[in-house]
Give the backbone structure.
Amino acid sequence: MTSVADYYAGKNVLITGATGFMGKVLVEKLLRCCPQVRALFLLVRPKAGQSMQQRVDDMIKCKLFDRVREDDAHFHRKIVPISSELTEPGLAISPEDADKLAACVNIVFHCAATIRFDEPLKHAVQLNVIGTQQLLGLARRMRHLEAFIHISTAYANCNRKHIDEVIYPPPVEPRKLIESLEWMDDRIVQDITPRLIGNRPNTYTYTKALAEYVVQQEQDKLNIGIIRPSIVGASWQEPFPGWIDNFNGPSGVFIAAGKGILRTMRANNDAVADLIPVDVVINLTLAAGWYTAVHKLVPRCPPGPLQKHHVMSSFKRNPLEQAFRRPNANITSNYLIYQYWILVSHKFPALLYDLVLRLTGQKPQMMRIFNRLHKAISLLEYFSSQDWEWNSENVNMLMAQLSPEDRKVTFNFDVRQLNWPEYIENYCIGTKKYVLNEDMSDIPAARQHLRKLRNIRYTFNTVLVVFIWRVFIARSQMARNIWYFVVSLCFKFLSYFRASSTLTN
Ligand SMILES: CCCCCCCCCCCCCCCC(=O)SCCNC(=O)CCNC(=O)[C@H](O)C(C)(C)COP(=O)(O)OP(=O)(O)OC[C@H]1O[C@@H](n2cnc3c(N)ncnc32)[C@H](O)[C@@H]1OP(=O)(O)O
Ligand SMILES: NC(=O)C1=CN([C@@H]2O[C@H](COP(=O)(O)OP(=O)(O)OC[C@H]3O[C@@H](n4cnc5c(N)ncnc54)[C@H](OP(=O)(O)O)[C@@H]3O)[C@@H](O)[C@H]2O)C=CC1
């Protein structure tokens, strides 16, 4: 039985989306665990005033690549950036580069996509569907291609409750949709988008379903493998626990909760979200690359349930700096209770805080932050408040095909071995260290800040109770009677204790 690393020895690998969250982890893992790989061709676009080469240089300088750097200081020699914009005709690859790729690439990993839930349909189709089609066109020209691995999402078919490892018929024939979008102006497309996406929640899942179909159309000509991860979170073990570099999905929710901004969210209480660590997804992807070179496959990544109390307790132990309030979120599936908490725990404190800012001559900002947060959590709500049943037979089969060393160590994707509380703790610390770039040595000060917030809350609650009680007393005879009764009782107790202490002296 050959090992996965042996398979990649001497191979030329093409990767799209290498500058993204998952792409980076894929590049790192290939370089570290398949050291005999010949070259990694990365399709990268220039962006934000940076050339493609500068972007790749910045990427490989980041901490994620520390372990690769330790093993081989010259690892960058294996990386060949290719300038490419996936939404342009011919992927905007120069004819020379296209010829070079056609002549030598053995495996393609297609990770690039727009993952925004609010992406206008035209752009989502352009990148996720047409971009994929064009890449398949290039792949058809590759004379030594052994596998084309497409990264999809477990939610491509989220309009179904039970999802098998098959490609379902597309919601619309992609060719017809592409032709129609060509002549429609953006306003018309915006108007008909809800009708088109039907019972899917957004253009992301809709276009990812179309992309799967487009990939499947090539199955007679190419060795195709499709990976469907659920919600991808920070790394479990590799290259080190808790690595994460973005605010997407749960990470943004965790950070907002850790900062004490997010105090409520609508979600299913039992299994809040189907989370899968990024290193597990990448191990599965590389194993699938090896296996697909011989067979065809649609594996899905087996997820685990994310529980909110682990997040809260973890942020109490390792607080984020300058929290707005103490981390404490109410997860509820009840709409009315949710609205109540939005009002009491989000809008009211935001208004109060903005009022203080105004009074002190500063610019109000809290309400604006909360409006953005509400938009983000409303887009995630669809995924956090429902359950799906997924079939994972192909994943189990693939696991059984690996050598014991690959299965248990190098390409382990058995999520059953994961200790969830420990994983979530590392995830929360990862958001602090790698997303917010906060220093771990500041934790005592952050804890002190949380204690201060707790004292402010106690004081505020006491003042509020006394105030309400005073208002109540002023208006109700019964409240006054209760008040006098309680006060006289306290007085009697005090007199009794004073008398008994005088006697004992
Ligand atoms: C407690 C336990 C509960 C459990 C919790 C369960 C969660 C349950 C999740 C389900 C999730 C399903 C996932 C499906 C799985 C896929 O298949 S794939 C991929 C998932 N895709 C995503 O998660 C993308 C979702 N995000 C979006 O669509 C857009 O970001 C949104 C939400 C529409 C917001 O758009 P926007 O307002 O334009 O903001 P955006 O441009 O994203 O960010 C603007 C800036 O704010 C920053 N920012 C963004 N978010 C934040 C934040 N939260 N805080 C601070 N800054 C932030 C950004 O970094 C950015 O900074 P700059 O780059 O401008 O410096
Ligand atoms: N993150 C998650 O939770 C999940 C992700 N997935 C899938 O995994 C894949 C990777 O996701 P993730 O890494 O999180 O996404 P990111 O948004 O982090 O990365 C997207 C990548 O695509 C590239 N890209 C975007 N537009 C273009 C373009 N026009 N031309 C060239 N490259 C482009 C980006 O390049 P640039 O840096 O230039 O913008 C970036 O490298 C996607 O296919 C996604 O659907 C599936 C399930 C869950």
In short: Residues 17-23, 45, 47, 85-87, 111-115, 127, 151, 153, 208, 229, 231-232, 246, 248-249 surround NDP (ligand 2) (CB under 6 Å). The two ends are 90 Å apart (CA to CA).
